[in-house]
Amino acid sequence: MTEFTPTVPSRVLPPVTVRDLPPPPRSAWPIIGPGLVGAGVGLASGEFILWPYIASQVGLIFVWGALIGIITQWFINMEIERYTLATGETALTGFSRLWRHWGLVFVLMTLCSNLWPGWVTTSATMVTYLTGTGEGSVRWIAIGMLVVIALGLTLAPVIYTVLERVIFIKIALVLTLIVVAIVFAINADAWAGLGRGLTVDASLPVPPLEFALLMGAIAYAGAGGGQNLCQSNWIRDKGFGMGLYVPRLVSPVTGQEEAAPSTGFQFAPTKENLARWRQWWRVANIEQASTFALVSFVTIALMSMLAYSTVFGRPGLENSIDFLGVEGQVLQQTVAPWFGVLFWVIGALALFASAMGIVDYTSRLVADTIKTVYLRGKQVTENRVYFAVVWALALTGIVILLLGFDQPLVLLVLSASFAAVMMFVYSILLIWLNRKALPAPIRIRSYRLGAMVWSIAFFGTLTVLTLIQQAQRIFGG
Question: In b/e form, how buried is each residue of 207-246, taking b as 16+ CB within 10 angstroms?
Answer without folding.
Answer: bebebbbbbbbbbbbbbbbbbbbbbbbbbbbbbbbbbebb
